């Protein structure tokens, strides 16, 4: 995958960068900056952007206005077709709510994450606006809503429109009357539709939003802002994973800084400067996330994991055959190739994949499936003494027998092993976290692996679990179901941030 560095020419670190397309349109059109915290200025310019004759900038993003939208504009905007495809009747809106509705329905915001709680549903937008949908009211933390809390802002209109579109099989045929509070006048209401368990996750998957989930112990899965910044910056390095990227930078987050006072500049260290700016400056954070979106970061992450695992096993095979150690200090294990190190690195890689499947959902599941299946296939093919036939006369590493240096035995096991029912099985527990739709293209490879480890007499519990997984994937694929992406194929999720590994199989 080629790094999208060519997009960096559009990255700016200015203090007054536009946070939404509407703001970007205003800045371009007037030739001057428009302070985003000025409530009155925001309202006037948003109204002008929505109702004036110069509102074409937003339409240009979609290749220009359609004939239907032009007819609606010329007829006084009694109806309007949103980006979602739904046509709304705006006749019930007044002079305050009408402009907000038009700005919201024409815009495209980015949702960082969403979650359900006992009090309703929360949607965190990239520009730091936080929309809460409750049974009694819908609120937002933006300056526009704070100035007029009795009127829905553009963020509320947009979020409710996106959710409303999810529950219509054909949004382009849907019509609804909009209310001043941003809600379509339809029954049942949005919060009632989201009440059913798993519905928010399904909506988030369809809308390509990250949905934070409770692991059952009160912890939420997702990425903090600090983790997201490390993820983006590490994506531009060819070998370093975000978990290993500049540990020294994380310690600086605890110190209070302001981007305007020059406190984020680190002389001679561009990475550290960008890291601090992205943490403390919303505009820089938003720009970085647009240059390297979540989908790209996820694809790069899982590709790096697979490349590292491939290089690790290649180094191990070469070392066993010739005694040659890797000379690249950036190699997995730092150039140290011993059986224990190989097992530990592979277990850590699989655990990181599992944790990141949950933290990055709904992004990256195909890349995670590719990496996991490749690792499992590689270990399933290594049921042998790695020193057998070597040309440097080595009979053992540290006095161990052949099974104690056999990667297959150490990671998958043998038929005489009595595995516990709740024991995490190498790779399989991570595969269960994936949606069936991502595993279905690899189901034939999984069948081949199952046949191979049957011949190699894997533990009965391992064979049963892999067989059950394959049947679940085949069943979902045959039914055309990929909706399990929100919860995966497995059961309880692991503790967040667990970068440990599976214990080595004892004989």
Give the uncertain stretches in residue-range form: 1-76, 481-487, 491-501
Radius of gyration (CA) equals 27 Å
Overall residue-averaged pLDDT value? 80
Which assembly state applies to the chains in this document?
single chain
Strand order of the largest sheet: 3-4-5-6
Give the proportion of residues in helices: 40-55%
Strand content: 5-15%
Order of helices and strands: HHHHEEHEEEEHHEHHEEHHHHHHHHHHHH
Shape: globular
| Integer count of domains | 2
Biggest beta-sheet profile: 4 strands, antiparallel
Task: Measure the end-to-end span.
Answer: 41 Å
Number of helices: 21
According to DSSP, the number of beta strands is 9
InterPro entries: Znf_SWIM (IPR007527)
Biased composition (Acidic residues): 56-72
Organism: Penicillium angulare
Keywords: Metal-binding, Zinc, Zinc-finger
Secondary-structure blueprint:
Blueprint: H1 21-30, H2 39-51, H3 56-60, H4 67-74, E1 79-81, E2 87-89, H5 97-106, E3 111-117, E4 120-125, E5 130-133, E6 138-140, H6 143-147, H7 154-166, E7 175-177, H8 190-193, H9 199-207, E8 213-214, E9 220-221, H10 225-234, H11 247-250, H12 270-280, H13 282-291, H14 294-322, H15 339-360, H16 365-380, H17 407-411, H18 428-431, H19 436-439, H20 443-455, H21 460-478
Parallel strand pairs: 2-7
Antiparallel strand pairs: 1-2, 3-4, 4-5, 5-6, 8-9
InterPro entries: Znf_SWIM (IPR007527)
Region (Disordered): 1-82, 481-507
Organism: Penicillium angulare
């Amino acid at each position: 995958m080629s790094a999208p560095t060519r997009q960096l020419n559009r990255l700016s670190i200015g203090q007054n960068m536009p946070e939404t397309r509407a703001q970007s349109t205003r800045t371009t059109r007037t030739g001057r900056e428009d302070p985003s915290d000025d409530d009155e200025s925001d309202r006037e310019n948003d109204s002008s952007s929505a109702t004036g004759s110069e509102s074409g900038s937003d339409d240009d993003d979609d290749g220009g206005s359609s004939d239907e939208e032009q007819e609606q504009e010329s007829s006084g905007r009694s109806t309007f077709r949103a980006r979602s495809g739904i046509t709304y009747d705006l006749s019930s809106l007044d002079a305050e709510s009408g402009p907000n509705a038009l700005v919201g329905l024409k815009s495209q915001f980015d949702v960082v994450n969403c979650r359900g709680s006992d009090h309703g549903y929360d949607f965190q937008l990239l520009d730091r606006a936080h929309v809460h949908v409750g049974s009694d009211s819908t609120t937002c933390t933006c300056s526009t809503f704070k100035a007029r809390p009795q009127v829905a802002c553009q963020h509320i209109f947009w979020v409710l429109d996106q959710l409303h579109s999810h529950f219509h099989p054909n949004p382009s045929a849907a019509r609804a009357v909009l209310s001043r509070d941003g809600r379509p006048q339809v029954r049942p209401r949005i919060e009632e539709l989201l009440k059913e368990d798993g519905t928010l996750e399904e909506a988030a998957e369809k809308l390509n939003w990250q949905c934070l989930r409770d692991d059952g112990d009160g912890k939420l899965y997702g990425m903090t802002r600090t983790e997201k910044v490390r993820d983006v910056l590490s994506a531009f390095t060819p070998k370093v994973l975000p978990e290993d990227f500049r540990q020294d930078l994380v310690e600086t987050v605890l110190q209070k800084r302001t981007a305007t006072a020059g406190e984020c500049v680190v002389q001679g260290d561009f990475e550290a400067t960008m890291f601090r700016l992205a943490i403390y400056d919303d505009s820089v954070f938003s720009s970085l996330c647009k240059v390297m979106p979540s989908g790209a970061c996820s694809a790069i992450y899982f590709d790096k994991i697979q490349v590292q695992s491939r290089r690790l096993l290649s180094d191990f095979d070469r070392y066993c055959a010739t005694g040659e150690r890797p000379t690249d200090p950036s190699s997995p294990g730092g150039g140290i190739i011993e059986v224990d190190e190989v097992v530990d690195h592979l277990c850590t890689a699989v655990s990181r994949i599992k944790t990141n499947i949950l933290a990055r959902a709904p992004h990256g599941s195909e890349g995670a499936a590719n990496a996991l299946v490749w690792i499992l296939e590689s270990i399933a093919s290594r049921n042998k003494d790695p020193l057998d036939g070597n040309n440097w006369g080595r009979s053992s590493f540290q006095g161990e027998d052949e099974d104690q240096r056999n990667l297959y035995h150490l990671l998958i096991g043998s038929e005489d092993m009595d595995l516990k029912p709740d024991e995490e099985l190498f790779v399989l527990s991570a595969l269960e976290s994936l949606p069936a739709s991502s595993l279905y293209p690899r189901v034939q490879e999984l069948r081949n692996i199952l046949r191979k480890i049957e011949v190699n007499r894997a533990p009965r519990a391992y064979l049963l679990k892999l067989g059950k997984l394959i049947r679940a994937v085949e069943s979902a694929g045959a039914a055309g179901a990929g909706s399990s992406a929100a919860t995966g194929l497995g059961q309880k999720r692991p503790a967040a941030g667990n970068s440990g590994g599976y214990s080595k199989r004892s004989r």
